[in-house]
Amino acid sequence: MVDVADPLQRAALLRQPQSFRVAGEDFLRIAVLGIGTQFVRVTGRVLDEEGNHKPFTFDVAAPGSRVAPATVIASIGCGWIENVTAIALSAGTGLAQTYVTVELVRGAAAAGGVMATLVAGYVSSLVRLTWPGSSLQSSLAGPGVVRVITGTDPAAGAEISETVPAGARWLFRALRANFVTDATVANRTPVLCFDDGANIFASAGPNFNMAASSNFLFQYADVGMAFAQASNDVMVPAPANVTLLGGHRIRTITGSIQAGDNWGAPVYSVEEWLEGA
Amino acid sequence: MAIRCKACGGVYEPIQSDGTEYYHVCPPITLVAAQRDGKALYVPLPELRETDSVRVQRGDSRVTVTVAALEPGDRRLGDTTIERSDKRDERPVERFRNGQMVAEPTAVGAGVETVITAEPAPADIFTSDAPIA
């Protein structure tokens, strides 16, 4: 028998079947991981003990980090959580750049015990997470964000070397770079290599040698076959599906490179996920 | 505006076109296997001399020649790489500073300097034979 004169029992009648009861010592912990400069907005409603549907809104700045999340512990009072929604506020941010976790924790300390995970996954200005509704997603699930990066223009005699940032997972797509040889006679062989910071595990080179005083535009991509060199714009088949973790490198090793040889700044495309710490 | 690394001389844009930060890490130095004054050495590429001897692939054979005597078609053998002692690595790491966790570059190396790059040409200037109204 429900006593409808008792506000608490009346509120219990109104609550949704999936809602969580929260008391004063329960909090929402919102953790945001991402490299954008955007905010994440977490909204929702709590059915309080008087039977009122009370909305809440918390904005959390993305930390600009792939390894150290920005964390907010938020009080939502007493009652039942009815729903939670998370969305990125900035327009134009791609998916797989901002990962959000909203948990129900006991205690306001950062290390408070997790009672429930409500949402976990990537958000953008178009894609939101909701509880109830969204499934919990790994940061490595689904498509990554496609990035085009302009790397370092090496000094003369130096090789291209691009290092994957900590906390990122890259899937290599393509790299394009100009290479000019000086007048020193010798055959150059510009090979694109992938290593873990020390050990090379994949490489790809052109099927011809590059002579002194020449200028070539090399494009390394998963094209599956080596083309005959018909011009100075060269397509080199690179290994497909090369996955790179933090600290791994994309770099050139140019056989017979000379002190006056000069690589231009590489422009490369990768698909990126947040790997976390 | 671009940045030049004083360790390796590389030039880069610290902010990418998509607004994300770019973390420069110096490339390794190429070491050339050479003979100098009868001694076998690994010589950093910029310090290789015309009188140093190197091993090369010449046609189907391998020969030792001085740098000055290299021929078109030669391929130098035995190169390796080594990390720079003053290597810069801008990838952030979390460190405790004054009781707070802060993100700092892994290694600052020899530092950086700002480079002023040329302004892009204006896109809306063109010539026309048509009279200006």
Brief summary of the model shown:
The complex is a heterodimer of chains A (277) and B (133). By secondary structure, chain A is mainly β.
Number of helices of chain A: 1
Number of helices of chain B: 0
β-strand percent of chain B reads 35-45%
Sketch the topology of chain A as an H/E string, one letter per element.
HEEEEEEEEEEEEEEEEEEEE
- How much of the polypeptide of chain A forms β-strand, as a percent range? over 45%
Instruction: Name the overall outline of chain A.
Output: rod-shaped
Structural class of chain A: mainly beta
Report on this structure.
The complex is a heterodimer of chains A (277) and B (133). With 277 residues, chain A is mainly β. Chain A has one helix at 7-14; strands spanning 20-22, 26-34, 39-47, 53-61, 65-75, 79-88, 98-106, 113-122, 129-131, 145-150, 161-163, 168-180, 189-195, 200-204, 215-221, 233-237, 243-245, 249-255, 262-263, 267-274. In chain A, the strands form 4 sheets. In chain A, strands 10, 12, 15, 16, 17, 19 and 20 form a 7-stranded mixed sheet that branches. In chain A, strands 1, 3, 4, 6 and 9 form a 5-stranded antiparallel sheet that branches. Chain A starts with 6 loop residues before the first helix and ends with a strand. In chain A, 41% of the residues are buried. The model of chain A has no long low-confidence stretch (mean pLDDT 89). By secondary structure, chain B is an all-beta fold. Chain B is built from no helices and 11 strands. Chain B has strands at residues 2-5, 11-12, 29-36, 39-44, 53-58, 61-66, 75-76, 80-82, 89-97, 100-107, 112-115. In chain B, strands 3, 4, 5, 6, 7 and 8 form a 6-stranded antiparallel sheet that branches. A 3-stranded antiparallel sheet of chain B has the order 2-1-11, with no helix packed on it. Chain B is elongated and about 60 Å long. The model of chain B has no long low-confidence stretch (mean pLDDT 87).
